[in-house]
Amino acid sequence: MASLFTPSRKVALQVLQEVREGRFAEDALSDALDRQSLSAKDRNLATELVYGVVRWRDRLDSIIRRCVIRPGTRMDPDVREILRTALYQIFFLQRIPEHAAVDQAVMYASQRSKKHAGFVNAVLRRALRDRETADPPPEKDPRRLAVYYSHPEWLVRRWLHRFGYRKTKHILQHNNSKASLELRLNTLKATPDTVSQITEESELQAIPGFPNALRVMRSSGKVETIKGFLEGSLVVQALASQMIAPLLKPQPDMRILDACAAPGGKTSHLAALVQDNARIVALDISQQRLNETAANLQRLGVHSVEFVVGDAADPQMVKELGTFDRILVDAPCSNLGVLRHNPEAKYRVTPEALMQFARIQSRILSNMAGLLNPGGMLVYSVCSPTEEETVGVVDAFLTASPGFSLLPFIREEVPMPVLVDARGFFATFPPPPEMPLDGFFAARVARK
C-alpha cells in the first residue's frame, strides 16, 4: 500500500516535518528535491503543497478543530500534518480530485495505525460534508482575520492600526500569494543577441520599466534548465531586491563594501553596475555561505570581489577592513517583508524579536558607517517593513551620529515614484496593487 503513495505528497510531508522542527521551507524543500528524482509535475506539486500548507497553517488548523468530533483531542503532530496537507488540496487546489486527497491521506495515516487512518478519514469526510461551516469567511475582527489569513494576531493588529482594514486585507492576501520567479540579466555576460535568444526560447517575459528584469512565466521546476542560467547570463533575484544596488550609485574604481553579502545577488549587481571595474569586498559571517557566494559569482563572470569572513556587528573585526567610498548594509532582519518566499517567518517572529533584530542592525550600521570615507555614501536596507527595523534604526543612528546626514532618494531614481516616501526613504510596503513586490526598505546616508 505504501508504494502507491505519490512521491510528491511523501516529499511534501517530509519537508513539512523539517519545517516544524525549525528549518526554513526553502532550504528543506531544495535539499529534498535534490535528493529525489521527481518529474517536473511531482516537483511542482510538492512545492505547492509545502508552501501552501505553511502559508495557510492557522486556517487549516481552524478547519481541523471544527471537524474533530471530540474537541480537545490530543493529536499526533505527523497526523496533523497529513490533515493539513489533505485539507489544503481540498480547499485550495481545485485541480486535485477530492477523493484523491482523502485516499492519499488515509493511506499515509494507515502506515502509522488503523486508528490514525480512521481518524483522518472521519475528519476529512466531515470537512467535505460541512465545507461552509468548516471554513467560514472572516470578519473584521483582528483575531478572526489573523486565523483566516494565517498571520500572528499581534501583526494583524499592528497593520490594522497603521493602514486600516482595506490595506491590511490586501497585505494579508499578498503575503499568502505565490511569488513569481524573477531574474536579472547579468550584463557582464548577457549580450543583446543572447538576451534575444533567451527570451525567445524560454518562458521569460521582460518586466516593463525595470531594466534587465525578467519574470518566469512557466516554471519547469529547476532554474538551471532556463537557457542562459548555467552560462551566467541570468541571476535569480526578486524584483524589489534588484532595486537596491543602484541606490548606492557605485562608480568604477571605487572601493565598495557589501556587508552581510551572502548569497551574493546584490554583490553581483554592484559588480555589473561598475562593469566589474571596482574593488569590492564581500563580507559575511558564514564561511559556507561565502563559499557558495564565490561559486555563484564565478558563474557570473565576476572577478572584482574579495571575500572576507567576519561578523559585521564586531567593531574590532571591521576596523581591519579599511575604508570605503560606498557601503551596502543589507542587514539581517525578521524577513517579514518576504513572506511569499519565507512564510514560516510569520510564525517565528515576535515583537520582542523585532527589538533584538533592531539592536543587531543598529550595531552593524554604526560599525559600517565608521568605515565610510568623507563624502562617501551608505545604503541601509532590510527586507522587513517594521518600524523597529527600518525608520527606527535609521533615526537612532542619525541622532547618535552628527557626522552623517540623510541623503534622501528622489523619485526619479526608482522605476516607480510611489516607492519613495515623503522623507526620501525607499519602501515597497504595502505592495502597490499593480506590482506585487516584496517588502523592502532602504535609506541612504552620507558622511559629511
UniProtKB/TrEMBL annotation:
It comes from the Bacteria. Pfam families: Methyltr_RsmB-F, NusB, RsmF-B_ferredox. The keyword Isomerase does not apply. PROSITE patterns: SAM_MT_RSMB_NOP. The active site is at 383 (nucleophile). The keyword Transport does not apply. It is an enzyme of class 2 (transferase). It is found in: Cytoplasm. GO terms for molecular function: RNA binding; rRNA methyltransferase activity. It catalyses: cytidine(967) in 16S rRNA + S-adenosyl-L-methionine = 5-methylcytidine(967) in 16S rRNA + S-adenosyl-L-homocysteine + H(+). CDD domains: AdoMet_MTases. InterPro entries: MeTrfase_RsmB-F_NOP2_cat, MeTrfase_RsmB-F_NOP2_dom, NusB-like_sf, NusB_RsmB_TIM44, RCMT, rRNA_ssu_MeTfrase_B, RsmB-like_ferredoxin, SAM-dependent_MTases_sf. GO terms for cellular component: cytoplasm. Keywords: Cytoplasm, Methyltransferase, RNA-binding, rRNA processing, S-adenosyl-L-methionine, Transferase. Its EC number is 2.1.1.176. GO terms for biological process: regulation of DNA-templated transcription. Residues 171-448 form the SAM-dependent MTase RsmB/NOP-type domain. S-adenosyl-L-methionine binds at residues 260-266, 284, 311, 330. Belongs to the class I-like SAM-binding methyltransferase superfamily. RsmB/NOP family. Specifically methylates the cytosine at position 967 (m5C967) of 16S rRNA. This is 16S rRNA (cytosine(967)-C(5))-methyltransferase. The lineage of its organism: Bacteria, Pseudomonadati, Thermodesulfobacteriota, Desulfomonilia, Desulfomonilales.
